[in-house]
Fold these 4 entries.
Entry 1:
Amino acid sequence: MSWNAKQKLTILEGKDSDYFQSYSRLETHMNMLRDSVRMEAFRDAIVQNRGLFQDKIVLDVGCGTGILSLFAAEAGASKVIAVECTDIADLAEEIIRDNQKEDVVKVVKGLVEQVELPDGIEKVDIIVSEWMGNALYMEAMINSVMFARDKWLTRGGRILPSTGNLWLMGAYDPHRRTNLNFWCNVEGIDMGCVKKPFSKEPLVECVPIQQLLTDECFIHSTNLAVARNQPVQFQSNFQLKVMRSGIINMLVLYFDVLFPSGKSNKSVTLSTSPHSPWTHWEQTVLHLDEPLYVRIRDRVRGELAMTPTGQDGRGMNFDLHLSFRGERTRVESFKSFCSSS
């Protein structure tokens, strides 16, 4: 069985999974719509790029409330097909009617791996999708976008955003010991056995820049125009240069995505770096079991591998090899982290 066939079967079997249930909740969509950095990046990339969208057929993969589809209609698209699997599709249809765009935007309820395009449309010129998860690749939405690309995107068509980059930094969490010791006495109950599995979970947190101790290191990139539709898995060597002396007890993952532009427009970048304004993705942190006592210009070296996990492949395993030789500590370690979707 081909990967596309396996992908379609797995997603169909997992349609009622926690992942899809979470996107049925209006609170989830409110959190995304309230993310001004996210919204401004997509609006700038679409609405201020009329030359790219004028008279084009657009496919919105995982449209949610339909906001990106409405942006595309505002930018001059002749037709927008908004595909959404959850019951939010019914609300999206109503929102589009309330904004008098029902002649341009057509909502199709179902999985993108299962539906057919309406009105006899066989090809689209542009695909828009907010496909990014925490640490870029969690949720595996990227594979649904590439499925749509392979099936419907015309030759030379565009995907927004088109490229995702993953980055790594070293930092200090002043609350780590307190959070671990919490489990030792919960209302007089010893839950210390939870400390070990808790320490193996990647956590999503907002990391203040004051806690950063290293420069950033590029880890991985995906160009959706050319990448094969396969599960995202890789291993990447890294080297972090220490910029401030201190204690590194966590590694911080963040991403940025790039939007293609027309001939007369500047490209748009959406970043989730700790140095950038807050987004609902925040950052993904991997806590170390052995802290690194570092000085300026020290080097922290290692290898990070990511592989899909879970029946639907929407979670991620992180395998971290770490090597550090400093004046106070020498560490050679390996640790695995596992996230659910």
Entry 2:
Amino acid sequence: MAKAKIFIFAPADQTGESHKKLQTAGCELVLGNASWNTPQGNSEGEMMRMAQGCDALIGTSIRSTPITRKIMESSNKLRIVAKYTIGVDDVDVDAATELGILVAHGPAESNWGGVAEGTITNMLTMLKKVRERDRHLKAGGVWRDKSFEGSYFGSRPDGYKGLTLGIIGLGRIGGRVATLLRPWKMKMLAYDPYIPESRFKEHGVERVDLNTLLRESDIVTLHVVLTKETRHMIGAEQFALMKPTALLVNSSRGMCVDERALVEALQQGQITGAALDVFEYEPLSLESPLRTLGDKVLLSPHMISSNVGSGLKPGVVMATDAVLAALRGEVADNIYNKEVIARWQSRFGSKSV
């Protein structure tokens, strides 16, 4: 394989193993400034210069400067943009497809499974009042204060109907959430216009439209990819439909929720609380009003899938292997924009760099 040039726009492999693997394959590496810890990187102009002559772009999430058409057009040799993460909302996938460029992502179970487990953790933390009980007792509060009673999730033989869970997006993560909570005997509703009926039955959830889900659910949890359709899909109109006792959980993408409308809904008592791992703009500003809402919110710095022995590592391996495959003129299994594959193969198929 001749020497290929790879722009790692947001390095995230602290072990350096993936870099060594690429270099061993004869690749020249160009490293950007963004990282998993700080998703603020180079400017678009800088990235355009760094991408010139590159055969592949690879990295983790990058918020300050997404992978735009201009960046991809900087190299007429570009074969693939590979993400370490599941989400590709920071890549102009439409432009990549139009340009005949593969976009790969990293749907590793250590990532999406961790998101599902973290989602349930956040629900329990909020509705069982875990933080409040801990803080109260450490501060010398009275024993068994009734104001710290939590919510029982499932239905019971005594006639208690339990809480209703509304899952928006029944893909890998939403489906795992449903699977994990099914034994709890909760009523589960789901909205996903792109999933077949069989999947709803598989996970024991009732298929409903979005407005019905919002009106009837005690917990609304988002598990969608960020697209033009899902951007601000939850805003003032949707909060007005929800129960005043409802909890919103968002571990998908911050832009799926209108943050200003969320703050207003919490301040006005339209909903009771929100558990957020993602935000419209990251890192979350120190001046964000979300930081002032006390126990109405549970905030996490976009690391819900970060667990010992998992996190990004499997995604790094998947993305690296996808790049090496593309350099050999092959198509990996984890391609997001599959509609471009036939055209890509006519241009690069079986042609090594």
Entry 3:
Amino acid sequence: MSDRITRKLTTILAADAEQFSAAMTADEVGTFTELQAARDVFFKLITHHGGRVANTAGDGLIADFPSVVEAVQCAIEVQQELAARDAALSFRIGVHLGDVICDGPDLIGEGVNLAARLQTMAEPGGVLISQQVYDHVKNKLTIGFEYLGDRRPRNLAEDVAVYRVSLGAPRPSRPAERKRPADPSQSARVWLDPDPFADAPQRDFRAPAGDDMADGDQQQDGFDLKGYKARFRRCEKPSKMIAGAAAGLFLLDIVTGRGIWAHWPILVLVMLFLLREGPRMFDRNAFLSLPLRFWIIGGFLFLVNMFSWSGYFWALWPIGGLFLVSLLRRGIAPQADEPQ
């Protein structure tokens, strides 16, 4: 027995094959060959992105990465390569940044459990990430992310924000019911658990539920008011801080009586708030094919121009420059996202 427990903060990638037991029943040799080919893809890209394989259990895999960005990029490239090969096996992937216990080369702990639970929620061929991962990659990867809402996993006291990495249409799952091998390893036990979100209320954000349609003030013309409120609640604390700061600045402006100046610092605070929390508030990183940051900074420049109006619309030039830069980056991004 060791004298001390070794811990580390790392990015955990959990992957699992869809309908593996059913496929083994139908074609044992062929499915095993497909699993080996898929593992070769995983091992190659995990190594390429600076990660390591911590555990392989049956049809699943756990890897960890020192870099959050590299872990998500690895997950994206794995799914893209498997889709390009039209592999018979589809994999679900979950990625989480958390503190884990090191048991030799193996990893144990809540961080591993949560990554595995995200994996169970993913669609075949899809990738789900936690809030901790999203906060690190949202401005570093050009791919999009979709906020699926807050879910409460089994045996956890707090809700977990879940994001889907936008990879296009998910791969169809096989119709047969999935079963699991009977002799799991230490890390694999978390994958054998029933879906931890099965008992928690869930909502399909792409289509309104029947109860919401019955409630006219919650669902109007396809707009999910409940979903918007859930997203806004995540930004409630910083928005209250901004409102408090704005009220304080206006009060100071009135007390000093030296002209109206409070709108300038308030405008800057609002812009910084939207740059940080905008993607979570509006559930998108782009609007009309242009980055959300373009609209926020453009709106800031427009208001500065209006507040300091001198008969000349000078904001047109920096906004136009931002527009051209956004178009150039949009043209370069697809080439940068191609797997090496």
Entry 4:
Amino acid sequence: MKQTKLAIIGAGGLTGKELTKLIAHHPGFELVHVTSNQVDGKHIREVFPDLSHLPDLKFHKHDAPVPKEAGIVLATPNEASLEKAPEFLKEGRKVIDLSGTFRLHNQTKFEKAYQFSHTEFGLMDQVVFGLPELFREKLKNANFVSNPGCYATSAILPIALLGNLRKEIQGPVIVDAKSGVSGAGGRTEEIKFAYTNVYENFRAYKILTHQHEPEMEEYGFVGTEEKEILFTPHLLPIYRGILATIYISFPKGIDPKQVEEKFQVAASKEPFVRLYSSPEEVEIRKIQNTNFLDLGFRIKGNTLVIVSALDNLMKGAAGQALQNLNLMYGYPETEGLVTL
């Protein structure tokens, strides 16, 4: 198998660490450069003593020169990605960005959700949204990919997989999702995400203001009329995993066989989508440390309830990034992800 060199800018964060582990065990990728302004100069094995088979690399600062032949993974905060992505694209490199900076095509919605000015919005004409189940063919030829958000993936896929049934949806879609702390505070140490504040506790946060809400709206309804989504995230006292409950209303009753057919088609052809016979079977423990998105549903009257689950560090971040990298560089889509 051919070897492709990669650099991870921001490898010191939780998602960067997860992707470092995945790439280290991938037969087609060679990790040649890692950065972190916080642990600059330290050996990667010193920073990640719990990971095996890591390359002989030391961390550099974000602005250090990157080997010319390396593709770029940006696992950086939003503002850093805004600065670094254009630089690497101008050098002719392939870039995949794990931040939210290049996901939304509506600049007004972006700046309201992310609370800063987007000065490189012209690049949105080049970017491909990194959800293989929806944009696989585009990803195979992409030079610039924006990896989806974790909460967003847990809602976008279940909604989008409904296909033409989405045209009949009435009123706002309600997304009620719960995440482990690694999905809510993945980079900086904040007291609200610390163990002492989540142990024996459970709470909502960013109610109706979370930055993934417009992302759900744009891509959950891609190819059809966009509907409003009302999203409330919650913080669980666990490390990893997201479980989302999605409430969808229709003007008249909907046949469960129609929904099951849509989901069965996806589960049969998509390597990382699994459909359960009941929503109660969908659990966080079944998807932890995997790249799967699990689904189950039930209908009562005019209301469809879908329960989905994914690992926020895998299908919600690093695993999905590797899935996208495989497509971008011509490797089997599941390489490095099916033997975890």
